Amino acid sequence: MAVSLIRRLIQAIFVILAMTVIVFVGVNVIGNPVDILINPDANQAERLRVIAHYGLDQPLWKQYMLFLQGLVHGDFGNSFVYGRPALSLILERLPATLELAISALLIAIVIGLPLGLYAGLYPNRISSRLIMSGSILGFSLPTFWVGLMLIMVFAVELRWLPTNGRGATAEFLGAQWSFLTRNGLSHLLLPAFNLALFKTSLILRLTRAGVQEVLPQDYIKFARAKGLSERRIVFVHVLKNLMIPLVTIIGLEFGSLIAFSVVTESIFAWPGMGKLIIDSINLLDRPVIVAYLMMMVILFVGLNFIIDVCYTLLDPRVRLDAKA
Amino acid sequence: MSALLEVRNLVTEFGKGLGLLAVNGVSFTLDRGKVLGLVGESGSGKSVTGFSIMRLLDKPGRIASGQILFDGVDLATTSEGEMRRLRGKRIAMVFQDPMMTLNPVLTVGTQLIEAVLAHEAVPKEVARQRARDALGLVGIPSPEERLSAYPHEFSGGMRQRVAIAIALLHRPDLIIADEPTTALDVTIQSQIISEFQRLTEQSKTAVIWITHDLAIVSRLADEIAVMYAGRLVETGSVAHVLGTPRHPYTRGLIMSVPSQNRRGEPLRQIPGITPAINRLPPGCSFRARCDRATEGCSAMPELSWEGARAYRCFHPVEGPTHER
Ligand SMILES: Nc1ncnc2c1ncn2[C@@H]1O[C@H](COP(=O)(O)OP(=O)(O)OP(=O)(O)O)[C@@H](O)[C@H]1O
Ligand code: SF4
Ligand SMILES: [Mg+2]
To answer: Cβ atoms within 10 A of the Cβ of A140, count?
Structure first.
C-alpha cells in the first residue's frame, strides 16, 4: 500500500510539473507579457526597466526556472491592482469560496443521496418519477438563471433572505467564516443552494443508478435469504457498494465547485476567489491569474490523490492489488 | 406427523397474464431431515421453484396461485415480516455461484455476524464466537483470522463453504441448495457435497437439492422430482424413479449420464431443446422430443399416481432402463 501511495504521489508531482509548463507557456509565450505590463505611453528607458524587473530579458528556460522557483516559495509576484502578493490575496478569499463550496456539497449530498436511494429502491412510484424529472431540471437550468430567480423570489418578492456579500462573519482557525453567525448563514443560504443545484441532480442520478445496479446482484438476494432487515440491506449492503463511485464523484465535483463557483459568486456578490479571478481577468492582473491557475491545479491533483487513498480504504479489492 | 414442506399446485408467473408460467402447478412434499433432488434441464423452473419457497422472486415474478405449507404456515400468502423471520432462521438457501453470493465490500465476519444477529439478540462478542465456530465447522482453517478477510481473499470452494456456514448457522429445518457445486471443480465438488451431507444429517435439516446432475441426486437424495418446462413430470423415491423411470424424459436424462453398467454404449442425448415457456405447444410439453408420442399426446396428461410415485405421461415406459 505504501509503495502504491508513493507511486501515486510521484505521478501527482509530474502532473503538477506538466501543468506549470502549460500555464507558463500560456501566460509568457502566447501573447507578449510586455504589452500587458507596460503602459503604451512609457518611454524606452521605462520599458527596459520594467522588462529587466520582471526578468523578461532572460532566455525562456531561465524565466521558467524563476517561475518554478517562485512557485516553490509561493511567490507569484505582487498583484498589479492591489500591489500585494498575489498568493496571499487569493488565500484571503479562500475561506469564502471554501465555505460556499462545502455548503453546496453538503446540500447536494443531504438532498441528492436520500432522494436517489428512494428513487432507486422504488423506481415505479410516481414520487420517484417526479424526483427524476426534477433532477433533469436541475441539470438543464443554467446556474445564473436559477441564481437570478432565487434572488427574485426569496430576496425581492418574499424578502426572506439577503443576497449581497457574506454578511457578518466570525473568526475560526484564523479565518473569517459566515456560517458561524446567524446573519452570515442567511447570506450563505441562497448562493450555496444555487451552487448545489446541479450537483444535487448529479449525486441523485448517480445514487439511483448505483442502487439499480446493486439491487439485482446475487449478494443482495443472499442477504435477504439470511433474513436481514430491509434497513440493513439498504444502508449497509447497498450503500457500502455505492460509496466507491460516490466518493469519486464527490471528490471531483468538490474541485469543480471551487473552480466554477465564479458564476454564483458574481451573481451574489460573494467575495470569494471566483469573484477575484473574474476581476483579475478583466484587469489583466497576471500574477493573480497565474497564482489562481496553479492553486487550482494543485487542488485538483490533491483531490485526486485523496480520492485514491479513499478508494484503498473503501474497496478491499483495490487494497489487494496494491499489495501484489 | 405431517410433512415439513408441502407444495400444492404452485404457479409462479413472470409478467401478469402473459402466460409466462415459469412454474406451472408443481406439487411435492418433503419430510423432516429428508433430501429432495429437484432435477431438470436448464430453464425448466427449478430455481424459480426454490425462490418461490423463499419468496425471493425477481420482479416481475410472483406466485400466482397454489400453497406452500411450511410447518403449517402458507408461505405463499404469509406476511413479509413473517417471511423475514423464517428466512435464514428456519429456511436457508445456498446459491449456485459462490463468487457472487458474498458482498464484496464486507468482511466475511461481518456477513456471518449479521446473520446471527438477524435472528438472535445476543451480544456482538457471542455472535462473533458463533461465526467463528461456524467457519470452523465447514472446514475453513484458522477461522479467527479469516473472519476479518474479504470474500475476494477466498477461493470459490472456500466461499461456498462460507455460504454453507451462513445457511447452517441457525440449524434451519430446510435448506434450498440451488446447484451449489456446479461452479466448482470436480474434486472440490465432491468434498463440499460430503461436508454438506454430514452437516445437514447432524442438524436433521431437510434439503431441496437443485441440480441437473443425476449422479449427485443418486448419491444424496431420498426423493426426486423431475421438472420439464415448468411442470413436474415425474416424482417418487430415488430408487424407483432412477431405477425404473416411467416418463420418457426421465429415461432420456438417465440415458444421457455416463454409467458403469452401460460402458461401451454410446451416450444417448435427448434430441431437441427445452421449449421456451412462452412458446409451449398445446398438450404434453415433451411431445416434440418424445419417441413415444402419439396423437393422444396433444392433450395435457395429468399426474398418474402409482403408490408413492407419480408421472405425467400417457404412454409410460415399462421395466428397468438398461434393458431398453
Ligand atoms: N427474472 C425473470 N424474468 C423473466 N423470466 C424469468 C426470470 N427468471 C426466470 N424466468 C423464466 O423462468 C424459467 C425458469 O427459470 P429457472 O431459473 O427456474 O430455470 P432453472 O431450471 O433453474 O434452470 P438452470 O438450470 O439454468 O438454473 C426460465 O425459462 C425463464 O424464462
Ligand atoms: S404424454 Fe406422450 S408425448 Fe408426453 S411424454 Fe408421454 S408419450 Fe411422450
Ligand atoms: Mg437455476
So the answer is: 9
